Amino acid sequence: MITVIKPEYFSLEDFMTNPHDKTEWVDGQLIEKEGMTLRHGKIQLRLGSCWQDYKESSGQGGEVYTDVPCRTKKQGRSPDVAYLTPDLVAKYGNVPTLPQSFPLCAEIVSPTDIAEEVLLKAQEYLESGGEEVWLVYPESKWVMIITENQGLMFTYGQTACTQKVLIGFNIAVDQLLA
Asked: For the Putative restriction endonuclease domain, which residue ranges apply (predicted)?
């Protein structure tokens, strides 16, 4: 389910300088992100915490965020979990909205999300500076990892691992979705 927020006028530039919490700027409209459940929030926190712990223990640095705005070529998006490399933190660490996609981001797919739209969003991230997108499907127990050149799927009993960013990170799907 999508709720359109109807301010008088809110441009993409407005979103870039003053993003609203839990919203995305899509096709000229400010859209409220909906469908977040307790399970969604738990998985989001778990993945973000695991990325945070790994970037520190591996010495790779950077920053991990949740529900933080970025600009793609067409839209203003807010991935559920995002990782920014140290060089991009140095360059953009204090802007209200990242002017490109995060190198690594994740979307926790809600039961109300439309599969094709989620895949198009992942493609949008990749076309706008993103290198790797994780799509987490809690209900079907799948983790899909998409890069420019490949798409991988992992399920219970398997271990999902980063492909291009935050190299070496891995997590058992069972642990992530527990």
From this structure: 8-156
